[in-house]
Write a structure and sequence with these properties.
The chain is α/β, with parallel strands linked by helices and 327 residues long. It contains 14 helices and twelve strands. It binds NADPH dihydro-nicotinamide-adenine-dinucleotide phosphate and ketopantoate.
Length: 327
């Protein structure tokens, strides 16, 4: 039972690190800059505050993937096609691929390019903040993945590692629900604020409400309906975001139960000068809308604003400014 984490950054090092720290053989493939940071050892802090230390078997040579039975792909969406091209000649016969990514098309993108291999679609419901070689899970949440025989072999290892996998037979609906939550990634990135501060501001929540309601209209026409991943249903959540701050502090206390340092993965990308996943998140809503003869101007505007921010054009917005730009 050997796992290879391919594209090991925040999610890959955290999930793979927990597996390695609890006795599962894991190899990590990632960038040289990451190897330099983590090869002396990584520190993993769980949501319960407990810590694990492990020295990862981290390299930059993709060839090690050939020894793995399970390959966990944790690159950002834009790298999927290139990664599939790298994996195709290297994967062992019978190796299973698990993609742990935001967006709704990652699994299919890999599946189309890796004929002969099972690609299991997964989703990470929690946030991880990296600080050098320290990886901290800053929100509650689970990994969800498509029901598959692979979990008979690996399910116990993920559970022991403190990253249990909930098998779902409705992964498309799960990915759509996560997409709705991730519409905040762009707003969070443009705010320049930690998630908790941003979501405590009604103007930013109203921006998210606009983006989610637009996405819900599109999803209502294109099916499947998004799964319910939070205490409130997706449509109720989109409405509840608009309530005044004091009411939201009570109503949305679970939403705000976030470590004060946590930021969305898109905020990390913007801060590090990397291309963002906005085309795969808000852009996915625009694409879905096009397929059913609708328009999605709020999400289209967010895509454009994040692309501007990637080029250092108006990278920071107040809640009021952003709300004005989206209405
Ligand atoms: N971070 C979080 O809290 C959460 C993230 N997610 C999702 O999980 C996925 C992974 O996110 P995250 O871990 O934050 O991403 P990171 O950017 O931290 O990690 C991905 C790593 O893969 C590297 N990489 C890209 N292409 C290759 C390649 N061909 N070979 C080797 N390494 C490669 C990247 O390097 P480089 O940057 O140089 O390309 C980067 O170091 C995304 O879809 C994200 O949206 C979901 C929930 C929470
Ligand atoms: C966990 C969450 C929703 C936090 O924003 C996320 O998926 C991300 O940062 O990409």
């Amino acid at each position: 039972m050997t796992i290879c984490v391919f594209g090991a950054g925040s999610i890959g090092c955290y999930v793979g690190g927990r597996l390695a720290a609890t006795g599962t053989p894991v190899t990590f493939v990632g960038r040289e800059a990451m190897r330099e940071q983590v090869s002396g050892g990584i520190h993993l802090r769980g949501r319960d505050g407990g810590s694990l230390e492990v020295t990862p078997d981290f390299g930059t040579d993709p060839a090690v993937v050939g020894d793995a039975d399970l390959v966990v792909v944790t690159v950002k969406s834009g790298a999927n096609k290139q990664v599939a091209d790298q994996l195709r000649p290297l994967l062992a016969a019978g190796a299973v691929v698990l993609n742990l990514q935001n967006g709704i098309h990652g699994g299919a993108e890999l599946r189309d390019r890796l004929p002969g291999h099972r690609v299991v679609t997964g989703m990470v419901g929690f946030n991880v903040v990296r600080d050098g070689a320290s990886f901290q899970q800053t929100t509650a949440g689970e990994i969800m993945a498509a029901t598959d025989p692979v979990w008979e072999t690996y399910g116990a290892a993920f559970a022991t590692a403190g990253v249990p996998v909930e098998q779902r037979s409705d992964m498309d609906a799960v990915l759509r629900a996560k997409l709705l939550l991730n519409l905040n990634n762009a707003i969070n990135a443009l705010s320049g604020l930690p998630l908790r501060t941003e979501l405590s501001d009604r103007s930013f929540r109203r921006c998210l409400s606009l983006a989610q309601q637009e996405a819900l209209r599109v999803m209502a026409r294109s099916g499947p309906a998004p799964a319910r991943l939070t205490a409130l249903s997706p449509s109720l959540m989109a409405r509840a975001l608009r309530v005044p701050d004091r009411v939201f502090q009570r109503l949305g206390s679970k939403v705000l139960a976030i470590d004060p340092t946590a930021r969305s993965s898109m905020a990390d990308d913007l801060a590090a000068g990397r291309p963002t996943e906005v085309d795969w998140i808000n852009g996915a809503v625009v694409d879905l809308a096009g397929e059913v003869d609708l328009e999605a101007p709020v999400n289209a505007r967010l895509v454009a604003l994040v692309h501007d921010a990637e080029r250092a054009i108006h990278p920071r917005w107040t809640g009021a400014e952003l709300l004005n730009a989206l209405r």
